[in-house]
Amino acid sequence: MDKTMTDRERFPDYFVEEDIDRRKCTRVVPMKVLVIGMLRTGTLSMQAALEELGYKSTHHMHKVFQNPGSECIMWREALEAKYQNKGRKFTKSDWDQLLGHCQAVVDVPAAAFIPELYEAYPDAKVVIVQRDPDRWYESCSRTVMVFSSSPQLKILYFLDRWLVRRLAPFMGLLFTSLFGPKTKDPVKRRENWIKGYMDAYDEVRRIVPPEKRLEFTLGQGWEPLCKFLGNGVPNKPFPHVNDSASFDAGIKVLMKRMWIRAAKQNLPFVVGALGIVAAWWMYG
Questions:
Q1: What is the mean pLDDT of the chain?
Q2: 20 to 30 A Cα–Cα from 110, which one of 65, 119, 151, 270?
């Protein structure tokens, strides 16, 4: 990572803040590629690769961070319908509202809905990004699990109403839906996460015909992906971004952004409280 770059240059996604009501949107571009790739399977690299090939925009969890208002609500509704039988299961119309601006999806939460998305978009091609389950779990335990259990997030839940208060309940539901209830038993937690990982992939393999899917690893580079999708091979290396070190650096930037936003959101309350204290001290 180039240390001369600014935080905004290194992690531009964390500086985007949108307030788009997806329920008022519809499909404006065709859905072409559905990637079943769980978190920490190279999803940012796949996003960069697909956008290099012209699939714009490619949905990633970072898009939820950027527009948490309606996205957290809609993804939560979809999770509750699929995994808890609450409410109405999403139809193509719902997916068009939520993902109508996207030509491809990678990462969670979309990876939890590849069968449903394939039913809605049967002409889309499916890419299964594989990673050794044990290595995948170790990566998650060093990164995602550390971030999601951070004491800072517990404090920011009360202070950052724009992102953390919306994101935390949705992320909790996402993880329990995919990987089972939270547990302090490290052996059971490992079993649950790996089982959830394998079950999601097996579900896709049962539903999507072999000729419509590509089993892919990032180390294979451009050739098999481009051949499957019908694209020319770019004259540049296949993207490799967001290793563990980059993830940690990005989380530090994200946390800083959360604290800055929390300070701005709560400054009027702090000033008001100080005014009350000052008035009581002077005139009480």
A1: 91
A2: 151
pLDDT of residue 3: 66
Rounded CA separation 114/126 (Å): 8
Q: Is the Cα dihedral 211, 213, 215, 217 positive or negative?
A: positive
Encode 19-69 in three state secondary structure.
CCCHHHCCCCCCCCEEEECCCCCCHHHHHHHHHHCCCCCEECHHHHHHCHH
Instruction: Report which of 139, 146, 190, 148 is spatially closest to residue 170, judged by C-alpha positions.
Output: 148
Contact between residue 163 and residue 261 where contact means Cβ atoms under 8 Å apart = yes
Look up residue 53 and give its amino acid. Answer: L
The predicted structure's pLDDT at residue 271: 46
Non-local CB neighbours of 9 within 8 Å, separated by 6+ positions:
none
Cis status of the peptide bond prior to 109, with omega within 30 of 0: yes
Which of 120, 118, 189 is closest to 149 using CA atoms?
Answer: 189
- Asked if residues 13 and 4 have their Cβ atoms less than 8 Å apart, the reply is no
Angle at 160 between CA 80 and CA 162, to 5 degrees: 60
Alpha-carbon span 89 to 106, nearest angstrom: 21
Please tell me what DSSP assigns to residue 132. Answer: -
Q: What pLDDT score does 235 carry?
A: 96
pLDDT of residue 268: 65
Distances (CA, A) of 97 to 45, 71, 154, 274: 26, 10, 31, 45
Angstrom distance (rounded) from CA 278 to CA 68: 37
Taking only the tens place, the pLDDT of each residue in 250-268 is: 989 998 988 888 888 887 6
Which residues of the chain register pLDDT less than 70?
1-3, 268-284
